[in-house]
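Let us work through a complete example step by step.
Step 1: write down the sequence.
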Amino acid sequence: MKRCVGLRGSVVGLLALLGVASPAVAHPAPFSFVDLHIHQASLDIEVVIHAFDVAYELGIDPPGRVFDPDVLGSGTQRLSALLRDRLHILVDGRPLPFDTWSAAELLPERQSVRLRASSDLVRPPGVIEVSARLFPYDEAHQTFLNFYDDGALTSQAILGASQTRYEYFVGSRQGTLAVIRKFVPEGVHHILIGPDHLLFLIGLLLLGGSVRRLLTVITGFTVAHSITLVLAVLNIVTPPGRLVEPIIALSIVYVGVDNLMVRGGRDMRVWIALVFGLIHGFGFASVLQEMGLPTGALGWSLFSFNLGVEIGQVTVAVVVASALMALRAYSDVAGRRIAVAGSIVVMAAGTFWFIQRVFFPGGMA
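Step 2: predict the structure and record it as tokens.
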């Protein structure tokens, strides 16, 4: 589960609680802390581990004996080995080694110990990925991540049993490029594997028309879904998926019906694209939110994902529109028949998805 910088107050409160807590037999707070200090040429890391977890891993009983330097002894090496095995950091997709850790620093006021390490960077980092499950014996254990970019706390996250990985995009040109490299392909991928969005778009193209007309239809769809994508991701308007998904299916049915009923040159496709594009934008947003957005690069991630969607969308539109134009140039009758048959298929698919999403939301057996 991700947290933004506003989590700082909660973390400080937890630290204060740990600071005044007295030694206890039970595990008082299943937390560890990982601070990453990002510089242009190096990445420094500090790990604070609760005495109870140290005692468990080293077989020290009772846990309070952890603060006896003679008892902890060579345990520092075992803790270092534990961190090498369970804490993994990738910088721009490449593993960053932390082979040498400092001796464990005793923090009795926090009932914890601290270890430090540092690693040089070949070039300024763009994206840092942290994977950690430090103490798997305790399902309730959580690791608080704090990212410091040039000395300023810029992002926080919590890793636990259900979330063991977090990506942080550095607030620099390299970080922006990393956001673009990740989210543009994700947008392309989503539109290409989203049959409902593609079928809606293809339905809008079946009747053909001039290049200018088709561009206007596609632009209307783009503008509309871009608006609701931003509104949903920013949590300004967030309709439930159980409502959005059936309406998306109905929009596909409507396109097919409109194609079959068009008369006398009436062409409402631009308005259909605008109105239903707003609904499709909420569908795009649900996927983007599940991916997890970098809080420090929200604008760029939104722009990049939407750009990817448009690249995939335009690619499909060019292929479909070109094929339909070529068919009509060869035989106008065949072109009309394809439009009718395609519209029936569009209606049937939309009807199927509507029934499935309303009556069988968990999937048909």
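Step 3: interpret the result. The radius of gyration is 27 Å.
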